[in-house]
Amino acid sequence: MSLASEITRIIDLFQFPFMQRAVISGVLTGLAGGMLGSFTILRQLSFFSDALGHSTLLGLSFGILLGWNPTAIVLPFAVLFALGVTYLLERTRLWTDALLNIVYSSSLALAVIVLSFTGTYKGGIHQLLFGDILAVHTADLFICGGLLLACALYMGLTFRTQMLITLNEPLAVARGVSVSFHRTTFIVLLALVVGISIKAVGVLLISAFIVIPACASRLLCRQFKHHIVLSASLGAISAVVGMLLSAGLNLPSGPSIVIAQLGIFVGAMIYPQLYKAFA
Questions:
Q1: Other Cβ atoms closer than 10 A to 15
Q2: What is the rounded CA–CA span in Å between residue 198 and residue 42?
Q3: What is the dihedral of CA 150, 22, 82, 231, to 10 degrees?
Q4: The pLDDT value given to residue 263
Q5: CA distances (Å), 140 to each of 6, 165, 203, in order?
Q6: pLDDT tens-digit profile of 78-99?
Q7: How many Å apart are CA 3 and CA 164, to the nearest integer?
Q8: 196-227 confidence digits (pLDDT tens)
Q9: Cα–Cα distance, 158 to 14 (Å, whole number)
């Protein structure tokens, strides 16, 4: 097959409504994930997002077992779970990584047990683990758009506060900032973004979806504002590139998006060296 015919095939493929919804969903969730991901890595919450993503499989499992819409149950479950984990982190003396490991592994084990009681366990586990962005519906796009707007408004209106909490939390407390409130609000938004993004990239890859664009942006930017904007942009760009890879090479969409993010990250690592060499 010639290059021209292959390009034509890909263009024709993107004429289908389900492909258009998939691209829009990828861009919206990529923007939200990159925006919150920039704060997530700076606050050292990367493992928290990973544990949260895997734990939402338990909510999905209950939704499947009860015959409910998995998307409808996963969002409130993700929020409640995130708040519960935050409470445990504040109330126990255990190390954060140890507690998250307990939550991560036990919830995953419970999810597999719950799924074993459903008739869709063998057939649906692949979509749960690796995502199926092509199954996105119009209602999902409205949820993604509303969530992106909420994240942008909140982070924009409280930007200075968020920056202070991220860079110097003791100073924020000394200045009278309600750190607990802002931390909880951020965790809730992160839980919602993780919950809605699982449909695109799946449970196993959700942490990479949040973390990789932010890490790539961190390698390229030193100013806080630029870091956030670039992180969100890279999240959206990687979603589009991943969908193109998926369509062109007939690859799974979720893993293709993460591979595109990995390529961007590697490029961000190489670029400063090349710039120094040829400057």
A1: 8
A2: 22
A3: -70
A4: 93
A5: 30, 32, 17
A6: 888 888 888 887 777 777 777 7
A7: 51
A8: 888 778 777 888 888 999 999 999 888 888 88
A9: 38
Q: Which residues fall within 8 angstroms of residue 183, CB to CB, at 6 or more apart?
A: 86, 165
Q: How far apart are CA 140 and CA 195, in angstroms?
A: 12
Token digits of residue 127? 């979509």
- For 52-81, the pLDDT digits (tens) are 877 787 887 787 777 777 667 778 888 888
Rounded to whole angstroms, the Cα distance separating 278 from 274 reads 6
Write the CB contacts of 49 (distance below 8 Å, at least 6 apart in sequence): 37, 40, 190, 194, 206, 207, 210, 211
In what helix (H) or strand (E) does residue 11 lie, and over which residues does it extend? helix 3-13
Contact indicator for 260, 242 with CB cutoff of 8 Å:
yes
DSSP 3-state assignment of 15?
A: coil
Whether residue 26 contacts residue 243, with contact meaning beta carbons closer than 8 Å, is answered with yes
97: left (phi over 0), alpha (psi -120 to 50) or beta: alpha
Both tokens of 52, joined, read: 């949260």
Answer whether 259's CB lies under 8 Å from 201's CB: no
State both tokens at 49: 């997002």
| Chain center to CA of 6 | 31
